[in-house]
Amino acid sequence: MGVADVFGANIVMSNMYGEGSHFLAGASIAEALVRRGHNVTSLISRAYDQRASDPQFSYMKFAIFEHHNKSMEEVRYTFKRFNTLAFVDPTRQIMELSPFLVNMSKDCRDIVTDESMLMRLKDTDTIVMDITWPCAAVIRRVLERKFHKDIKLVSLNPFTPQGMSIFMFGTSFNPSYQSEMGLGFTDSMTFSQRFLNTLQCVGFYILMKYKSLQNYMQLARDIGLDESRFYAWSYYKEFDLNLLSSDFSTEFSFPLNPNFIPVGGLTARPAKQLSEELEKIMQSSGDDGVILFSLGTYFSEAVTRTKPEIAEMFVTAFDRLPQKVIWQTKDVGNLKLPSNVFTTPWVPQNDLLGHPKTRVFLYHGGNNGFQEACYHGVPLVVFPLQGDQYDIGARVEKRGIGRQLDKMHLTAENIYEALNDVINDPRYARTAKHVSAIMNDQPLSPRDRAAHWIEHVIKYGGEYLRSKGPELSLVQYYMIDVLALYLTLFLIMLIFLFLILRCVLSLLLRIVYGKTKQKKE
C-alpha cells in the first residue's frame, strides 16, 4: 500500500477475545479509524460472538475464531476463573498463570492453522495488537508469508506503563523511579522499594523470556516461521508503533521514544443522556449526590458469591451515608440493601461519571475507569484487587484525586471513612477538576490521536521512529563498559599520583635526613 492509498486501509483489531475493558479500548480506536474512511475488522472468540450483533459496534466487521478443542462455556469459565482468583486466592492465580498462557497460545495455533480464517484476513494492511495476547504478531508473519505482502503492526498497552514491558517494546526504563506493575509504588521510592522494584523487574524479565513469548516461539518453529522474531529482547523490531493507554495528566512523568504515543482516555467521551430510570435516581439524590460503585466485569459478581462478608462491609458503609448509591452487580446474594442503594447488572459508566450529580466513583481500579473518571473530573475511592489496579491506587493518592482501600485490612469503617472524606473534603474534587482540565486541553481526542499515528505508520512506516537503544546490550546501554574504563583510568591516575608523591616524599626525607646528619657531624 502506498502513501496515496492510506485511506480505505484494511485494519484488524486484536484486543483479547472480545470481552471486557481490553476490547472496549480497541473498539474506541476502531471507531475513530472508521470515521477516517478505513475498514476495521475485530478478531474475537466465538465465546464472545454477541459483540458481532451488538448495534453499538456496527461500525466494524468481525472475524470470529473457533476453539477447536474447547467448548465456549469452558473458554468463558477459564477467563472468569483466572480473573476472580485474584479476589479469592491470589496465590492460586499465580500458580495458574503458566497454564493460562499456554491455553492462549493454543488458541493462537487454532487461528494460524485455520485456512478459512487466513483467507478472511488476507487483505489486512495493519494489525493493532493488545499486548496481553501476542498472537497478532504471529498472525501478521503468517499472512505476510502466505500472501507476499508487508503488514504494519501496532501494539496497544491497556495498562499503566509496565516497566519491563515498555522496555521490551523499545523505550527507556529506569527502575529507580519507574515502578513495575502490581507494586503500587509511586515515582518517589525508598531504598527498600527500589530494591523490590528491581526484583520485580527481574521476575517480569524471566516471565517474558521463558513463559509469555516462549509458547509463541515454539508455535513459530512448528509452522516454519523465524522464531527469533519472537525472542523477548528483539521483539521491539516487530512493531511500527506502540500506543500507551495512559495520560501524563495522571501518569508519573518519564521519557518515551518517538514511537510510543500516550492515548489515555480511549473510552472517555462527553456524557450521553441517561435512561429515564437512572436519571430519576440521580435527580432524587438532591444536593448529596450519587456514589457510583462498580467492581468491573468479573469482580462485581465474585464479591457477593465468594466474599459475601466483604459485600456486607460495603452495604454497612453505604447505609451510613446520605448519598444514593448505584451499584453495578448481577447478584446481591442474601444481602439486605438499605433504601439508598440501587443495583443494576450493567451501567453506562462513562455517562454516569459525566453526570453533575456523581460525587465519587468507588471501584476496583481498572485503567479505563480511571481515565474516564479523570476525564470527567470525578474523585475516586479505589479498591485494588490485582495487577495494575494497585498502581492506579498509587496514582490516585499521589495526585490527590482520591483514596485507596486495602483489601487485606478492609472494614466497613474504613470504607465509610474514605468515602466520607473524599465526598466532603473539597480538595479532592478541586484536584480532580484540575486534572480533567489538563486531560481535555488537547488538539485531538485520544482515539483520534491513536488513529492519526496508525495512519502515519501506514503511510511512512515506523522504522525511523525507533531508537537504537534496544539494539545495545545492557553493558552498552547503561554505559557500564565506559564507566569501567573511566574508573580504571581514574585508578591508574591515582596510583601514578601516589607513586609520584611517594617518590617526592622519599626524596624530601633523604634530603632532611642528610642535612640532619651533616649538622650532627
Output the structural class: alpha/beta
Helix proportion of residues, in percent?
40-55%
**Average predicted confidence as pLDDT:** 90
> Which stretches are poorly predicted, pLDDT < 50 over at least 5 residues?
1-5
Overall shape: it is globular
Total helical segments:
20
Strand order of the largest sheet: 3-2-1-4-5-6-7
The rounded distance between the terminal residues' Cα atoms is: 102 Å
Using the CA coordinates, give the radius of gyration: 28 Å
Main β-sheet description: 7 strands, parallel
What amount of the residues lies in strands?
Answer: 5-15%
Q: Count of DSSP E strands?
A: 13
List the helices and strands and how they pair.
Blueprint: E1 10-14, H1 20-35, E2 39-45, E3 61-65, H2 72-88, H3 90-95, H4 97-112, H5 115-120, E4 126-130, H6 135-147, E5 152-157, H7 163-168, H8 191-212, H9 214-222, E6 241-244, E7 260-262, H10 276-284, E8 290-294, H11 296-306, H12 308-319, E9 324-328, E10 341-344, H13 349-353, E11 358-363, H14 367-376, E12 380-382, H15 389-399, E13 402-404, H16 412-424, H17 426-440, H18 446-460, H19 474-477, H20 480-520
Parallel strand pairs: 1-2, 1-4, 2-3, 4-5, 5-6, 6-7, 8-9, 8-11, 9-10, 11-12, 12-13
Helix pairs in contact: 1-18, 2-11, 4-6, 11-12, 12-16, 14-17
